[in-house]
Amino acid sequence: MKLAIAVVSCMLVGLVSCQQYQPTTPIPIVRYENDGVNFDGSYKWAYETGNGIQAQESGYVQPAQDPSQSALNVEGGYSYTAPDGTPISVKYVAGPQGFVPVGDHLPTPPPLPPAIAKLLQFLATQPSTPEPAYNKIK
Q1: pLDDT tens per residue across span 77-102
Q2: pTM for the model
Q3: Distance, CA of 6 to CA of 133 (rounded, Å)
Protein backbone atom coordinates (compact mmCIF):
# COMPACT_ATOMS: atom_id res chain seq x y z
CA MET A 1 0.00 0.00 0.00
CA LYS A 2 2.82 2.42 0.93
CA LEU A 3 4.59 1.62 -2.32
CA ALA A 4 1.46 2.40 -4.33
CA ILE A 5 1.08 5.78 -2.58
CA ALA A 6 4.74 6.60 -3.23
CA VAL A 7 4.41 5.68 -6.93
CA VAL A 8 1.22 7.71 -7.38
CA SER A 9 2.82 10.70 -5.57
CA CYS A 10 5.86 10.57 -7.87
CA MET A 11 3.61 10.39 -10.91
CA LEU A 12 1.62 13.44 -9.74
CA VAL A 13 4.79 15.42 -9.10
CA GLY A 14 6.06 14.52 -12.57
CA LEU A 15 2.74 15.49 -14.16
CA VAL A 16 2.68 18.86 -12.39
CA SER A 17 6.27 19.62 -13.34
CA CYS A 18 5.57 18.73 -17.00
CA GLN A 19 2.63 21.13 -17.08
CA GLN A 20 4.78 23.97 -15.74
CA TYR A 21 7.38 23.62 -18.49
CA GLN A 22 6.59 25.97 -21.33
CA PRO A 23 9.10 26.09 -24.16
CA THR A 24 10.05 29.61 -25.19
CA THR A 25 10.99 30.97 -28.55
CA PRO A 26 14.64 32.03 -28.69
CA ILE A 27 15.16 35.77 -28.99
CA PRO A 28 17.47 36.62 -31.89
CA ILE A 29 20.49 38.85 -31.59
CA VAL A 30 20.06 41.38 -34.38
CA ARG A 31 23.32 43.29 -33.89
CA TYR A 32 26.59 42.34 -32.22
CA GLU A 33 29.89 44.22 -32.24
CA ASN A 34 33.04 43.37 -30.30
CA ASP A 35 36.35 45.18 -30.60
CA GLY A 36 39.11 44.19 -28.19
CA VAL A 37 40.55 43.74 -25.73
CA ASN A 38 43.21 45.66 -27.65
CA PHE A 39 46.92 45.83 -26.92
CA ASP A 40 46.51 49.09 -24.97
CA GLY A 41 43.71 47.61 -22.82
CA SER A 42 40.88 49.40 -24.60
CA TYR A 43 37.75 47.59 -25.73
CA LYS A 44 34.28 48.23 -27.12
CA TRP A 45 31.21 46.06 -27.48
CA ALA A 46 27.53 46.50 -28.30
CA TYR A 47 24.51 44.32 -28.96
CA GLU A 48 20.80 44.53 -29.69
CA THR A 49 18.25 41.75 -29.40
CA GLY A 50 15.02 41.13 -31.28
CA ASN A 51 12.90 42.14 -28.28
CA GLY A 52 14.45 45.62 -28.03
CA ILE A 53 17.19 45.13 -25.46
CA GLN A 54 20.26 47.22 -26.26
CA ALA A 55 23.60 47.49 -24.47
CA GLN A 56 26.97 49.04 -25.22
CA GLU A 57 30.19 49.63 -23.34
CA SER A 58 33.67 50.93 -24.01
CA GLY A 59 36.68 51.14 -21.77
CA TYR A 60 40.29 52.18 -21.68
CA VAL A 61 43.17 51.94 -19.24
CA GLN A 62 44.30 55.24 -17.76
CA PRO A 63 47.90 55.27 -16.57
CA ALA A 64 48.43 56.47 -13.02
CA GLN A 65 51.30 58.49 -11.58
CA ASP A 66 52.63 55.31 -10.01
CA PRO A 67 53.77 53.07 -12.91
CA SER A 68 52.76 49.93 -11.03
CA GLN A 69 49.11 51.07 -10.91
CA SER A 70 46.55 52.03 -13.53
CA ALA A 71 42.81 52.55 -13.65
CA LEU A 72 40.20 51.16 -16.01
CA ASN A 73 37.68 53.78 -17.12
CA VAL A 74 34.41 52.51 -18.55
CA GLU A 75 31.34 54.14 -20.01
CA GLY A 76 28.27 52.53 -21.39
CA GLY A 77 24.57 52.04 -21.14
CA TYR A 78 21.66 49.70 -21.64
CA SER A 79 17.95 49.95 -22.34
CA TYR A 80 14.96 47.63 -22.30
CA THR A 81 11.22 47.66 -21.69
CA ALA A 82 10.10 46.61 -18.20
CA PRO A 83 7.29 44.03 -17.85
CA ASP A 84 4.82 46.85 -17.05
CA GLY A 85 5.71 48.61 -20.34
CA THR A 86 7.98 51.28 -18.85
CA PRO A 87 11.03 52.04 -20.99
CA ILE A 88 14.20 51.71 -18.91
CA SER A 89 17.42 53.41 -19.99
CA VAL A 90 20.63 53.64 -17.98
CA LYS A 91 23.88 55.38 -18.85
CA TYR A 92 26.89 54.79 -16.63
CA VAL A 93 30.54 55.54 -16.06
CA ALA A 94 32.87 53.54 -13.87
CA GLY A 95 36.44 54.08 -12.82
CA PRO A 96 38.41 55.23 -9.81
CA GLN A 97 35.36 57.18 -8.62
CA GLY A 98 33.24 54.00 -8.61
CA PHE A 99 30.14 53.03 -10.59
CA VAL A 100 27.90 56.02 -11.38
CA PRO A 101 24.60 55.15 -13.10
CA VAL A 102 22.17 57.75 -14.46
CA GLY A 103 18.58 56.99 -15.38
CA ASP A 104 15.16 58.61 -15.02
CA HIS A 105 13.82 55.61 -13.10
CA LEU A 106 16.65 55.58 -10.52
CA PRO A 107 15.94 57.14 -7.12
CA THR A 108 17.77 60.34 -6.26
CA PRO A 109 18.63 61.61 -2.79
CA PRO A 110 16.75 64.59 -1.41
CA PRO A 111 18.53 67.96 -1.48
CA LEU A 112 20.83 68.80 1.42
CA PRO A 113 19.31 71.00 4.11
CA PRO A 114 20.86 74.51 3.98
CA ALA A 115 22.52 74.15 7.40
CA ILE A 116 24.35 70.96 6.35
CA ALA A 117 25.39 72.47 3.00
CA LYS A 118 26.80 75.50 4.86
CA LEU A 119 28.67 73.23 7.29
CA LEU A 120 30.19 71.21 4.43
CA GLN A 121 31.35 74.43 2.74
CA PHE A 122 32.95 75.57 6.00
CA LEU A 123 34.70 72.24 6.52
CA ALA A 124 36.08 72.35 2.97
CA THR A 125 37.86 75.62 3.77
CA GLN A 126 39.54 74.27 6.91
CA PRO A 127 43.11 72.92 6.76
CA SER A 128 43.40 69.20 7.15
CA THR A 129 45.02 67.85 10.27
CA PRO A 130 47.06 64.67 10.31
CA GLU A 131 45.57 61.76 12.18
CA PRO A 132 47.40 60.80 15.36
CA ALA A 133 49.34 57.56 15.23
CA TYR A 134 47.71 55.13 17.64
CA ASN A 135 49.52 52.00 18.79
CA LYS A 136 52.43 52.65 16.52
CA ILE A 137 54.83 49.70 16.61
CA LYS A 138 58.42 50.80 16.97
Answers
A1: 999 999 998 899 999 999 888 899 99
A2: 0.59
A3: 70
